[in-house]
Specification:
The complex is a heterodimer. The C terminus of chain A is likely disordered. By secondary structure, chain A is α+β, with helices and mostly antiparallel strands. Chain A starts with a helix and ends in an 18-residue tail after the last helix. Chain B is mostly helical. Helices cover 75% and strands 0% of the residues of chain B. Chain B is built from three helices and no strands. The model of chain B has no long low-confidence stretch (mean pLDDT 93). The chains are: A alpha+beta, B mainly alpha.
């Protein structure tokens, strides 16, 4: 490799990294949390006062009685096979105002059969905390309209792509020498660089996948629009419909829900059905899809694949997104793109792997920023400066404030999920405000205190906020009045948060020691000008 | 004769060529796939859309290997011209 090429790409890597690194940190940290969005959602969902779900054999009775009471539910409702905290009723539906779009919020209702066989209907006030973390992930933390945030996210991902190419080229010449060496010691920059290289190289395939898929998620509308003009002669909409034929007329009696479920299980034994989703409109008539998981295969949606089932025969009508039954051709390839981004294959072990790879990705961007700061310091020192320049002070404070503000904000807003219901009106808005105020306060703190002191203080703060998650559950489990609820089966969420808090406190301790003993011209050292003679 | 040395000085010329003409080339090549490759249906429509991403990112990543911004605009412009020319010729 020519040294001038390496030098050029080193410059490129530095600049794209410093522009996109903090946004990518937020995307990766929040993304790691979304690996367990179902579990977080379950942890955060308030219990619902509703009789237990009827036997699965009585599901059709439940549907018929509910639709008799609430006819508008027939447009779209869901049958949950094993109701749980985040889907607490066997039958659930959204009551949308006529003409409302799918994105508009709508109240959710659930129903069950009471002991006397009458239908029982309650409004379900769920939680949106998992959704809020997911949006942070998708929009790299930007509190903007989806349509505005996504292209910005896309630009960040293009920079990320350039960073991957340039970082690999820069590392190539010294690959053999540097690969297995993480030199922990006096030379901090060397240690951070080694860490950055190891993280980057070993997770390179993961990063390539995440980058290319995220560019698609950001720009798919633009790609389709241009291709519609130059490849399809403006007929893209018609091409989507090709080969589809809808017959809205009923073709005989509808198969009862429990029989439909058995039919699905018979046709796909490895597929664990989580829910049946019913729909009815003028164009398609009655439709049913079965949603669930088969850990042996990849899934198109973040937590599920699905199959269209004929409600009159029980036979599968479309298996395009059915794990293991996708028609040969393009569909399985496409599903692999999605599931490689979502980690929606292989069950819990892969989710944990993705969780840690997401955290490692966040570390990659964090160490990248540290390297920028340390290199600047060395360059400036050579040029004769003894104090830090404004750019390293600003970047140091931003790095500490943004990353730890994100960590603390996510933890606090998750913990708040058990305190907000019943106390405030718009719970979702409160979750957003809690996150962003914590985030901004952390950045403000980092600027006010300087990166060095704020570093360990905010680490300890983030640890404390994360500790609030298991403490909240513990208080509720102890039965303290006004403390929400606690589920035994979500204890893993509490334990994971506890481990996270411990890790943050440990890092705070290390950072505190470094402030005491680090070089005083470092952005990480406390300035002790009087104690150290001028160099 | 002095030998050529790469520097990051002309980054804006190169990167803007990669961004704009890389987008054009990615869309032209994926559209050629749409028209020339066998198969049809929703799966192919989606794969065609997906193809744009790796092509665009690859061009953006390697566009710095052009010797100058002018060279980047020239060569990528030429590639766009050829790709869109073929695309016009094969329009169904």
């Amino acid at each position: 490799m020519r040294t001038d090429v390496v030098r050029m790409y080193k410059d490129v890597h530095t600049w794209v990294g410093i522009i996109s690194g903090l946004a990518l940190f937020i995307a990766f940290y929040a993304g790691a949390i979304t690996m367990f969005e179902t579990q977080v959602q379950r942890w955060a969902s308030p219990p619902v006062a509703l009789s237990p779900a009827p036997a699965i054999e009585r599901t059709q009775e439940l549907i018929d009685k509910t639709l008799a009471a609430r006819p508008q539910a027939e447009r779209q409702f869901q049958i949950t096979i094993s109701p749980n905290a985040e889907a607490p009723a066997r039958m659930m539906w959204l009551e949308r105002a006529p003409g409302a779009s799918r994105r508009d919020p709508a109240p959710m209702f659930g129903s069950t059969l009471a002991a006397d066989g009458s239908v029982e209907i309650v409004q379900i006030v769920g939680t949106e905390v998992a959704q809020i973390v997911d949006v942070l992930h998708q929009q790299v933390g930007l509190p903007l309209d989806h349509e505005i945030a996504m292209p910005i996210m896309g630009i960040i991902c293009l920079l990320y792509g350039i960073a991957l190419v340039s970082g690999t080229i820069v590392l190539l010449p010294s690959l053999v020498k540097d690969l297995f060496a993480v030199r922990v010691g006096k030379n901090l920059k060397r240690m951070w660089l080694d860490t950055h290289n190891v993280l980057g190289l070993f997770s390179l395939p993961f990063h390539i996948v995440i980058c290319l898929t995220a560019v698609v998620f950001a720009f798919h509308d633009q790609f389709y629009d241009v291709q519609n003009k130059i490849a399809y002669g403006g007929n893209l909409a018609a091409k989507w419909e090709e080969g589809e034929h809808h017959d809205p007329a009923p073709r005989g009696p509808v198969i009862p829900a429990d029989e439909l479920l058995r039919s699905v299980q018979a046709q796909a034994p490895g597929f664990r059905v989580d829910s049946l989703r019913y729909g009815k409109d003028d164009e398609h008539g009655l439709t049913v899809s079965a949603w669930g998981e088969d850990p042996a295969y990849g899934h198109r949606a973040p937590t599920a694949g699905w199959v269209e089932v004929d409600p009159y025969t029980g036979k599968f009508t479309e298996t395009d997104y059915m794990p293991g039954m996708q028609p040969a051709g393009f569909m399985p390839t496409l599903t692999s793109f999605f599931s490689l981004h979502f980690g929606s294959f292989g069950g819990p072990p892969v989710r944990w792997a993705y969780f840690f790879m997401g955290l490692a990705g966040a570390m990659l961007f964090y160490t990248g920023n540290l390297l920028w700061i340390e290199s600047r310091r060395k360059k400036e020192r050579k040029a004769g400066a003894v104090t830090q320049s404004r750019s390293t002070i600003v970047m140091g404070a931003l790095t500490v404030g943004v990353t730890l503000g994100c960590v603390a904000g996510i933890s606090l807003t998750i913990a708040a999920a058990k305190w907000l219901p019943g106390r405030v009106g718009d719970v979702a808005a409160w979750h957003s405000w809690i996150y962003y105020l914590t985030f901004l306060a952390a950045i403000g703190w980092a600027f006010a205190r300087g990166a060095a002191r704020a570093g360990w203080e905010l680490l300890a703060f983030a640890g404390a906020m994360t500790l609030l998650i298991p403490i909240t559950s513990l208080l509720a489990a102890a039965g303290l009045p006004g403390t929400g609820w606690s589920y035994r089966h979500t204890i893993l969420v509490d334990l994971t948060a506890l481990a996270g808090a411990a890790a943050l406190f440990w890092m705070a301790r290390i950072a505190y020691r470094r402030v005491e003993s680090g070089p005083r011209d470092s952005v990480w050292g406390e300035a002790k000008a009087r104690a150290v003679p001028q160099a | 004769m002095s030998t050529f040395e790469y520097t990051s000085r002309d980054w804006f010329g190169k990167a803007s060529a990669g961004l704009v003409l890389g987008f054009g080339l990615a869309l032209a090549l994926s559209s050629l796939f749409a028209i020339l490759a066998p198969g049809s249906g929703g799966g192919k429509l989606q794969v065609t859309m997906w193809m744009a991403s790796p092509i665009w990112v690859t061009i953006l990543g390697f566009c710095f290997l052009f010797r100058s911004g002018r060279a980047a605009w020239g060569w990528l412009g030429l590639a766009n011209g050829i790709a869109f020319g073929v695309l016009a010729a094969v329009q169904p």
